[in-house]
Predict the 3D structure of the following.
Amino acid sequence: MKSLSSWLIAMFAFMFWGYRVVETVMFSMGKVLVASPMDMVMEIALLFITFICICFIVKRKLLPASIYLMAHGLYYGIYLYQNITPLIDGTASIDSYMSLFIALIGVVIPFAAFFDVLLDKNRKAHPTDKKTDWFYKNEQFDRKVDERADRNQYRTY
């Protein structure tokens, strides 16, 4: 994660996750902050899946990014469709506009995260190999060679 866009996508994903946690807790207490969850059980499961996937997206893994996209696409895609039909019918209220906005954010962030991981050149150009990186990437442990290193002047008694 060397680019600013990758960091911003990860931060927005964590902020949206935090918002959904607060929204779910508020809904369980009987209050609605902005948009109520569509299904409480699915929302809680989605929160756990999202947290795990975002942690692996930061590590530039493609499988969690695709799981994140599929889970949010299925959940918020239905939510987006349910909130766009009142707009088409002309019976939209401010609540449906806010729910539409939240659902749109819930679909856009996973798309951005998936394509950011998919199109990352450093993920493919510089893969990490834990078996050899400890040896080749630890310059601080290299021995300092001086002018006597190749003469083998050891004392033997």
